[in-house]
């Protein structure tokens, strides 16, 4: 069996995949957006490096579209077309890198053997047809909003119990990596390296911080960290709020507000005058979180610079950039 490798950054990953000999496999994280709702942030897929002759309709292919890596369902091989699971427009499939042969979510490993492809194909057609109807989308959103809105808050609060929002320390690394594996698109390996480096330094020298919302059992229900983007090669100055995420059961209880608030306090303590954040323009929950904390929209210049930096790194959505003085 070939050695198991894992990679995360889109550029590094493309290089690794393209250099991988045909027939070898690689675990890949962060390419699952187009397979929602089957896959979610934090899931990993195992990719078998192969050529076009080894792909048929109904397979899930890993493709490169411009600088973006994505996993999509194959619609046809001649002409070469792929689409998202919900069928939001079949398009020319981009450069084929391999076939997805299994999925991993937390401790669960789901093989995707070849005979499943026709079933997946039928399921994809059914989902795409249903999702194409406005009524289905409205019902889905209404059910989702109903569950995570006010009425369920007392029940969820009871199930989750009291949460403590605090800075994370090296002893929290394991619980953080479990949370990251389930909920974050950055890989646990990347987090271990980034935060390990921070935590390894003397408190006076330390730059950046990680915060978590922990229940009485020590389980994490929310997370965010603050760091510079420079170390990943993005030409953006200052410190940024990164990977803000609250588990669904703990949403709309003020957890994100407390997490970012704690990061602001720590930034101030570290002498960082300003904290920045970049948010997808259609992410209402996140936009309201930063606005509620007094963050202001950044200048057009910084917004464009940030969008250009992320476009070059393979991102496709328009970002709103926020800034706030760290002083209370
Ligand atoms: C964005 C997210 C972190 C917010 O977490 P949260 O703990 O529910 O947020 P809070 O309870 O602190 O609420 C903050 C504000 O957002 C609003 N809000 C929260 N969820 C909302 C939703 N689904 N729709 C509209 N507003 C919402 C709250 O009403 C509150 O605004 P208010 O003070 O004006 O009432 C959470 O929804 C999440 O994890 N989403 C998925 C990951 C993500 O998108 N991360 C952000 C990346 S930048």
What's the arrangement of secondary structure elements?
Layout: E1 6-7, H1 10-19, E2 25-29, E3 44-49, E4 60-65, E5 68-76, E6 81-83, E7 91-92, E8 95-105, E9 108-111, H2 117-131, H3 134-148, H4 153-160, E10 164-167, H5 173-183, H6 188-199, E11 209-214, E12 220-227, E13 239-246, H7 255-269, E14 274-280, H8 284-292, E15 296-297, H9 300-312, E16 319-325
Parallel strand pairs: 1-2, 13-14
Antiparallel strand pairs: 2-3, 3-8, 4-5, 4-8, 5-6, 6-7, 8-9, 10-11, 11-12, 12-13, 14-16, 15-16
The protein binds coenzyme A.
User: Main sheet?
Assistant: 9 strands, mixed
Give the overall shape: globular
What is the arithmetic mean of pLDDT?
A: 82
In the CATH scheme, the class of the largest domain would be Alpha Beta
Structural class designation: alpha+beta
Distance between the termini: 56 Å
Within CATH, the superfamily of the largest domain carries the name Gcn5-related N-acetyltransferase (GNAT)
Please write the string of helix (H) and strand (E) elements.
EHEEEEEEEEHHHEHHEEEHEHEHE
CATH architecture heading of the largest domain = 3-Layer(aba) Sandwich
List the bound ligands: coenzyme A
Strand content: 25-35%
CATH topology title of the largest domain: Aminopeptidase
Total number of distinct structural domains? 2
Helix content: 25-40%
**Number of distinct helices:** 9
User: What is the radius of gyration computed over CA atoms, rounded to a whole number of angstroms?
Assistant: 21 Å
Low-confidence stretches: 1-8
């Amino acid at each position: 069996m070939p050695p198991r490798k894992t990679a995360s950054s889109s550029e590094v990953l493309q290089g690794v995949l393209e250099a991988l000999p045909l027939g070898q496999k690689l675990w890949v994280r962060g390419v699952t957006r187009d397979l929602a709702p089957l896959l979610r942030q934090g899931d990993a897929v195992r990719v078998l490096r192969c050529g076009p002759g080894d792909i048929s309709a109904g397979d899930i292919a890993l493709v490169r579209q411009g600088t973006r890596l994505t996993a999509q369902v194959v619609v046809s091989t001649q002409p070469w077309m792929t689409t998202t699971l919900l069928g939001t427009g079949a398009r020319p499939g981009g450069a084929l890198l391999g076939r997805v042969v299994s999925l991993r979510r937390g401790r669960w490993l789901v093989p995707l053997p070849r005979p499943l492809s026709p079933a997946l194909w039928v399921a994809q057609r059914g989902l795409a047809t249903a999702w194409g109807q406005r009524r289905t989308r409205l019902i889905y959103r209404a059910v989702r909003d109903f569950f995570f809105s006010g009425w369920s808050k007392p029940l969820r609060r009871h199930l989750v119990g009291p949460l403590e929002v605090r800075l994370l320390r090296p002893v929290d690394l394991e619980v953080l990596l479990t949370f990251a594996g389930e909920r974050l698109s950055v890989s646990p390996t990347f987090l271990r390296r980034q935060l390990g480096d921070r935590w390894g330094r003397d408190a006076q020298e330390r730059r950046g911080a990680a915060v978590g919302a922990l229940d009485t059992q020590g389980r994490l229900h929310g997370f965010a960290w603050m760091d510079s983007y420079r170390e990943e090669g993005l030409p953006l100055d200052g410190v940024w709020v990164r990977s803000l995420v609250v588990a669904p059961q703990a949403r709309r209880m003020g957890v994100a507000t407390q997490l970012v608030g704690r990061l602001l306090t720590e930034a101030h303590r570290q002498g960082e005058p300003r904290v920045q954040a970049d948010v997808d323009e259609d992410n209402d929950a996140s936009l309201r979180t930063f606005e509620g904390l007094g963050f202001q929209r950044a200048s057009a210049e910084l917004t464009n610079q940030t969008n250009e930096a992320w476009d070059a790194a393979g991102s496709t959505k328009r970002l709103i950039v926020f800034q706030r003085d760290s002083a209370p």
